[in-house]
Amino acid sequence: MRGFLIIGNNAVGKPFNLNDLPGNGRMDILCRFVAQSLFISHGIRRDVEVYLLLLGNPNDPKTIKISGRYVRGMRPDERSIGGLINKALRIRYTDGWVMSTPGIFVSRKDLSDLLKDICKEKKYNTIAYLREDGKDIRDFIKKEKNDILFITGDHLGLNDDNEKIVLNNTENIVAIPTLSLQADQCIVIINYELDLLEKNAI
Q1: Residue 146 has what DSSP assignment?
Q2: What is the mean pLDDT of the chain?
Q3: Is 89 annotated as a binding residue?
């Protein structure tokens, strides 16, 4: 199992205009993040879950969960992904997960609640926080191999409060030691490194 969580600091938690994804809290970044997490040529990674934390309204945070195992009808373009996120934001949500379309769920969870929920389910052996000053991610992946939840911020990173929450749940701060990369670019590299490990293990 691979998990990818991105924190959208200004991402709107209500239906938004698909013709202006950047103007709705940089929802375009989150849609690209989903695409690079899930899609391969002519298919979807069924062993991946993606979490989108929408903090555009701090008094009413929402989390979208997308399960590669069950998602249907999603295409890799930003508009298609944004449309499915919009559907999730239109339904009545609770503190638990409510399914909007196959494989896509929405909940009233902030970061603390989300990480508690993930840790309770024990889907992942460990959590890794992507930050530019972290240790080389290749060394970390070779040690941990799989069943990792990777956490990153959008173009704004994480604020102090959310970073404290993350660091209360993990000591693993990792980085891709090259130039400063966008969140979706980091996910491409992580998937490549994990794919390579799996191929060599066969």
Answers
A1: S
A2: 94
A3: no
